Amino acid sequence: MEANVIKKLLIFGTMNIAAFMFSQSTPTDSTSVKDKMIDEVVITGNSNPKASIKTSTSISTLKPADIINAAPRTTAEIFRTIPGIRAESSGGEGNSNITVRGVPVSAGGSRYLLIQEDGLPVMQFGDIAFGTQDQFTRFDSFVSRIEALRGGSASVFASNSPAGIINFITKTGEKQGGSITQQVGLNYKNFRTDVDYGTPLGNNYFIGVGGFYRGGDGPRKTGYISNNGGQFRLSLLKKFEKGSIRIYGKYLDDRTAAYMPMPIAVSGSDSNPDYSSLSSYNILTGALQSSNFRNDLTIGGNGQILKSDIRDGMHSVSKTVGLEFNYDLGSGWKLEEKARYAANDGQFLAPFPASVGSKAEILESIAGYGSAVYAGTNTAVDSNAKYMKTVLFNTQLNNLNNFFSDLNISKKWDKVKLNAGLYNSSQNINLSWNWNTYLMEVSDSNARLVDVINPTGIKITDNGLLHYGVPDWGGVNRNYDTKYSVIAPHAQVEINVVKNLSLDLGARYDFGKVSGSFAGTQNTMRTIDVNQNGTIETPEQSVAVVDGTVPVNYRYGIFGYSFGANYTINSHNAFFARVSQGGSASADRILFAGYNYTNNDDPALDAVKVNKVNQIEGGYKLRSANYFLNTTLFYAKTIEANYEATTQRRTENKYQSMGVEFDGFYKINQYFDIKAGLTYTHAEIKDAIDQTIVGNTPRRTPKFMYSINPNVTIDKLSLGFFVVGSTKAYTQDVNKLVMPGYALVNPYIAYRLLKNLTLNVNANNIFNALAITEAEEGSIVGTNGIIRARTLPGRTFSASVKFDF
């Protein structure tokens, strides 16, 4: 197998040698026409802004027009057109799984990639359970561009981001003018307005404002308005002779639906499965949410009775204020400081199907079963319908506040540039899991809750509620109140050894400290009148109450380095190589896994504190007046630990991935151009607690991912389409059940009605392709022909009108 991989990489390498030789004979290849080169000046993952051809990194820039044409319905969907990045955006506007170049997603979130806004993280950890960084990130028209860095140089420029950085860079108001964009869903309810405006105030002051507000159902049928909220941004910039100072802020208050795995019918074999919708549930348009399932009552983190409106879904609130300051000290010395404080909180409410089956398999398996009716009625349930035992993920995001500061001082000599900095951060993770168990029918049209009655006529359930808590999973109601602090000195030096050769070396050390406590290692069962009606119903006889508090007090260290070289043959051709080491600290994902969290000398704890990534990459960059091609060969080794709530499973695995990544653009003539990206990855589990999976491919890792975007522009008309897809992958590490490959086609057409008025119509997944991104089951064998999986939404159309002023 390894020989075949090496053979494929050699073929890819030969292709790039051919491209290099072709570039040498191209008539337009002249080093004297640099202004005609297609290249971007990038700032993410570099100590000094520079043209991308002069960097030894893999970086892509997304502009607002490209993002709008790609028709993303969520923030994570923006990333799917970036080569090398796998964005599983089937969870809605948050809770997405994102990773880079075969680096694993063993539980959820994006452990090895950070999302930044203006060069500072949104969250210090990308995989906080039910508080992922994309939940607190929204794209709007106030974003000037997005830069996506893949690879090892990120290890020295940010903590907990060894695989990459995605940086949202916002407007400053320096460019006068603005825009108003009104977007509407054509076959689904969505109304959104984006506004941005910037202007000079005089005396070198500049102000920028912007944001969005939206309402609607989203791309799936939830039975109510599930998307409701918006974001406001403000920037004030002052420029002076030797520098500038900027103060900015953001207020986000947004409610969106969270989509969990859904019931899907499957037949055939593990290697050749046939997936289809159940008769009562369309997997492309359905949602587990229902207008009949709106309220939840449970015992909160402090023992209080907590009333929740399930329609709040993923409710994200962020109040942010930031500062940027830079100053030219003279003699080649410069000072730069970035700092930001964010007060983050909210709630995560989403139904999860713990088990799905027939009436006999779900309802009649309840102890004491006599009969069953739809909740609130005396109507007997349909004996031929499907039913679910549903766990409501009701998680309070009490406090996810954070503070980030990065102070940098740099010095430039003739052939040497030095940057030294000190990064300081604190991240609170204070959450309460208040989960209950319900019974409901499987339906994509306002599913009904189900009550079970014993033979004597007494209800076992209360309006569909089976348990206060989740006894089937050993009780997972829990609280944690922890704080993660990091101080990280870092330094980077760049040396121009000769005219066209530059070397860069960076190092970073994270001094991490974790403190606090968590509770819920046990769930004590008590009798409590939760609904306070004076009667103890059956579920109230055994109410799960959080018990068993564990202190947390330990330290960790992460040493990261990155050494790169870039040889620029001329303004059209460059080769680069890089060797890196980095890591990502384990945050709340290793709590409740049974370690001694107060003993720094405990080897078991020491083995899971930090997840390590070592990378080697190298490639070739080709530039011309009408095309570019970036090619990167990559190799990564990952050592990680994790703990998954829904399976109660602890993992300590070693992974290896290698492959090649292409990123290209070709402007054929004044009317037609094409962008494309392709990533080939060969990934393997090298070691694990479960030795039976060693040698297997990590779950949900395809061999190929790709995106293609042909575009035609004729006068005022622009039209084209995106094809985004991947080849097949396994649902779980056991490598049995296959998720088929898919290709989503997203066409668009834009017409400039007036000089400053543009109409855009686009579609997402126009052919209703079935795109499964994850599944709970690892095999068809032993199931009842139904599995639980998340899919990307089906066909949606939207239109927007943009007015520039």
From TrEMBL:
Where does this protein chiefly localize? membrane
Question: Which InterPro entries does the protein's record reference?
Answer: Beta-barrel_TonB (IPR000531), Beta-barrel_TonB_sf (IPR036942), Plug_dom (IPR012910), Plug_dom_sf (IPR037066), TonB-dep_rcpt-like (IPR039426)
Protein's name in the database: Outer membrane receptor proteins, mostly Fe transport
User: Which UniProt key words apply to this protein?
Assistant: Cell outer membrane, Ion transport, Iron, Iron transport, Membrane, Receptor, Signal, TonB box, Transmembrane, Transmembrane beta strand, Transport
GO molecular function per UniProt? siderophore uptake transmembrane transporter activity
Query: Is Thylakoid a UniProt keyword of this protein?
Result: no
- Where does the source fall among the domains of life? Bacteria
Family recorded in the similarity comment: Belongs to the TonB-dependent receptor family.
Q: Give the membrane topology, semicolon-separated if more than one.
A: Multi-pass membrane protein
Keyword Metal-binding applies: no
- The TonB-dependent receptor-like beta-barrel domain covers 281-766
Q: Which GO terms describe its cellular component?
A: cell outer membrane
- Residues forming the TonB-dependent receptor plug domain are 54-165
Q: Where in the cell is it found?
A: Cell outer membrane
